């Protein structure tokens, strides 16, 4: 956990993500681990995985004050990616 924090400070997010995953596998994942994993997955545009970690965090502490902020940031990143997409596919098959 301390190594992950150090890597975050050095902006070496790939290494921080690995350390966070290792820390959460050694012990039970904490809310902090899961929120950091949401951030790391979002940075890589892996929004499905980020959503999974967010749901896990909500299961640990549904009233945590950082949960809404993380949800809003993730929703914003997803919306930004959709608006920057070169392709505009309908997500509802009934519209096709």
Describe this structure in words.
The chain is an all-alpha fold and 96 residues long. 72% of the residues lie in helices and 0% in strands. The protein is built from five helices and no strands. It has helices at residues 2-9, 13-26, 31-43, 47-60, 65-84. α3 packs antiparallel against α4 (47-60) and α3 runs parallel beside α5 (65-84).
Distance between the termini: 48 Å
Number of strand segments: 0
Structural class: mainly alpha
**Portion of residues in helices?**
over 70%
Strand and helix layout:
Layout: H1 2-9, H2 13-26, H3 31-43, H4 47-60, H5 65-84
Helix pairs in contact: 1-2, 2-3, 3-4, 3-5, 4-5
What would the keywords be for this entry?
single chain, 96 residues, mainly alpha, 5 helices
Q: Quick recap of the structure?
A:
The protein has 96 residues and is mainly alpha-helical.
């Amino acid at each position: 956990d301390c190594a992950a924090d150090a890597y975050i400070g050095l902006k070496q997010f790939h290494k921080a993500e690995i350390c966070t995953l290792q820390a959460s596998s050694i012990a039970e994942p904490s809310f902090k681990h899961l929120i950091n994993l949401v951030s790391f997955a979002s940075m890589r545009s892996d929004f499905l995985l980020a959503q999974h970690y967010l749901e896990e965090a909500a299961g640990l502490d549904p009233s945590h004050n950082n949960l809404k902020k993380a949800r809003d940031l993730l929703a914003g990143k997803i919306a930004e990616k959709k608006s920057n997409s070169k392709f505009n596919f309908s997500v509802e098959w009934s519209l096709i």
